[in-house]
Design goal:
Two copies of one chain form a homodimer. With 74 residues, chain A is mainly alpha-helical. Chain A has one domain: 434 Repressor (Amino-terminal Domain). Helices cover 64% and strands 0% of the residues of chain A. The radius of gyration of chain A is 11 Å and the shape is globular. The N and C termini of chain A lie far apart (24 Å). Chains A and B meet through α1 and α4 of A and α1 and α4 of B. Chain A binds a DNA duplex (30 and 30 nucleotides) through residues 1-2, 27-29, 36-41, 43-44, 46-47, 49-53, 55-56.
Amino acid sequence: MISENDKIAQIRFGENLKKLRIERGLSYRKMAYTCSVDNSKISKIEKGRVNITLNTMLQLAEALQIHPSELLNY
Amino acid sequence: MISENDKIAQIRFGENLKKLRIERGLSYRKMAYTCSVDNSKISKIEKGRVNITLNTMLQLAEALQIHPSELLNY
DNA sequence: TTGATTGCGGACTTTCTAGACCGCATTTAT
DNA sequence: ATAAATGCGGTCTAGAAAGTCCGCAATCAA
């Protein structure tokens, strides 16, 4: 079951992801191209609509060329 | 589909989790008690047998009383 | 102003996590 | 020697993530 706190965490994570992506001048599609995560999925993650898994996080970090832990530094 | 790299990442994550848990003198069951993650699940995570989600990571971090990003600092 | 790019959401199938519980062999305490 | 604690694996259901593709309005570029 998804608690309210969980949703908030997802939204925060998404906001941070968006910030990092924009900083690098990447569009959803460009980013998707380099990390095998579909562009629509990236949109959903940034909007806090999914409870992302570790492996997906690592793929995003690779596309952004950052250390995975940075995704949680917010 | 779970790639070989994914499995390796899960195993690394698990090893780090184990280190952090042991450092705090917590058993599976004690830790489970404070984070509503079943003790058998913690075992599976430490063994790299599951692709944990963000929310579960946050619960583990809370039980360990660390910042979530530390779970990825390995 | 035409064409491309972008953000974002819907829909669908497959695969796997979450969550809860059981059991047991081994280690650790009493 | 006995009891408790611990590590760790298995099993089952429900629901959600992964993965893939379509579509469209709005913005941007030629």
